[in-house]
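Limitations

Structures in this collection are predictions, not experimental determinations, and the ligand pose is part of the prediction. Treat each record accordingly. The example that follows, with FE2/S2 (inorganic) cluster as the small molecule, is included so readers can see exactly what is and is not provided: the inputs are given verbatim, and the output is the predicted complex.
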Amino acid sequence: MDSLNRGEGAAARGPLVALDRLPDGAFAEVEAVIEGDAESLVLCRDGDAVRAWLNICPHAGRRLDWAPGQFLKSREGLLVCAAHGASFQLSDGVCVAGPCRGEALRPVPVDVREGAVWLAAAK
Ligand code: FES
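Predicted complex:
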């Protein structure tokens, strides 16, 4: 893994990942420092937009990926937690099926600019 893909640059306020490394509809895992803590994030590209959430399932606090950066996507286009199958809408991160139905992933604000994904500046 190179430093850009792992988001190590985020600690120095660099980009999380180059946009062309994130195919449309694909997921990626990056690490970033948020409020002083190193966190794993799941990114999902939707055209020119990218959504990001903490890579933590609201059901039992496990990572969503079955191996680093390897996420499950259902035929319906839902992000599926590898631990117990909770399924999340990509539009808003809400769980629509599985053991934590009605709960939601914790969103992380990101911006797309200069051909890359960045943590949004704190307001
Ligand atoms: S930890 Fe994700 S479904 Fe249980």
